[in-house]
Amino acid sequence: MSAKVSKLLSIILAGSLLLFACQSAAPTQAPAQTEAPQVTEAPEATEAPTQAPAENRVLKVWHYESDTGAMGKSWLAAKEEFEATHPGVTVEMDNTKGFEEIRQTASMVLNSDEAPDVMEYNKGNATAGLLSQQGLLADMTDEVMKRGWDKIVVGGLQTTSRYENGVMGSGQWYGVTNYGEFVMVYYNKDLFEQHGVEVPTTLEELEAAMDKFVAAGLVPIATGASEYPAQQIFYELVLSKADQDLIDSYQLYKSPVDFHNEAFTFGAEKMAEWVEKGYIEKNSTSMGAEDMGLGFESGQYPMMISGSWWYGRLMTEITGFDWGIFLFPGNQFNPGSGGNLWVVAANSENKDLAYDWIDITLSPKIQTIMGNEGGLPVNANAEEITDPKVQELVQAFKEFSPGAAFYPDWPAPGLYDALVSNVQELINGTMTPAEMLDAIDTFYNENKPQ
């Protein structure tokens, strides 16, 4: 890479993360257009101790990232680094349980003798916020200040790491993210070319493209409605008609939400229409996120609407066709935020090692590995990220950052499951759009913080 291109990438990567940080909102006030800090070199995370306090200790780390993805690869490197700098300590890393299992069992596991010391966990009021209220997560505020993590995870990237009475955006640090993420459209360039389809820039152009694929016997969008993907498509459609006030009302409780307003009505009706037109399969109700991803990787589907967490894995696993990305056409706002959190179990006897682990995953060395493998690190040496495919992701993140709208399931405990089941019923045709919105309205208002 030339010095000029290297410098440009460094500015784009740092600038996009800072821009995203400044655009994210705290619950106590509307999002402010704050001035971005000056771009500087990535700060060093505090150096981990060269020896563990005692020999023959085991640090249990749970996460749900694939070993072939950007986060998984970087954390395997972190394991090597940790064990090299902590003689006598073994890292037992377990990523076999998956996102769904950890989401569903976290409160029970963290309240047992089987709890890991440190765990990747979903951010937001309904997840990390709830566990912080239940006393199951360690308050990491003192460690954050001592180790300087607040200088790495800055501005709006802190929003999902800090909770006050279970509500994100302020208060104590109960988690620390070490990457960014957002939802986009992945597309099969070969199928687009074969069927004479250009990358759409409006919703109307997207639907015209999908009509072409349907006419050719293809289902345009790979999805999985038994988990998170389908509800994120619904949210993208809602966001196509949303403004910042609606997002703040829904996510941050600024004012009551009318679930039969233009945006939510459009999202529900358009989702049902997409099923009727064959853009989304009815049998996606029995498919999960993994089914969706493998379907796209097989070359069977022209598009997949999902998050940047797939990016590094697709870089590794797709070999049979060329692919690319674009933001959801026409949207000013899209789902996204800082990434999932490292949380530490309140009853862990290895909190010192858990904090050292987080420190190492935030170090420029490990963060740069994540970047080169297709992730969105918060503390990488950007001049060392050289892959053009990664540069494409960084550029898309820069375009996304001013319109970060979080995720649809965040506002209330249990809302994830409510959205999954109600969107499934919408896809099945067992609920009308109005009935689905009624159900979400009731659940949201009964379970949001009062």
Q: How big is the Rg? A: 21 Å
Number of domains: 2
The CATH topology name of the largest domain reads D-Maltodextrin-Binding Protein, domain 2
Question: How many β strands by DSSP?
Answer: 13
Biggest β-sheet: strands ordered side by side in the sheet: 2-1-3-13-7
Largest sheet: 5 strands, mixed
Q: Helicity, in percent?
A: 40-55%
The ordered H/E elements are HEHEHEHHEEEEEHHEHHHHEHEEEHHHHH
**CATH class call of the largest domain:** Alpha Beta
What is the SS-derived class?
Answer: alpha+beta
The helix tally amounts to: 17
Distance between the termini: 53 Å
Mind telling me which CATH architecture of the largest domain this is? 3-Layer(aba) Sandwich
User: Any idea what the shape is?
Assistant: globular
Could you tell me the mean pLDDT? 89
* Low-confidence parts: 1-12, 21-42, 46-52
- Provide the CATH superfamily of the largest domain: Periplasmic binding protein-like II
Q: Bin the strand percentage.
A: 5-15%
Q: Write down the oligomeric state.
A: single chain
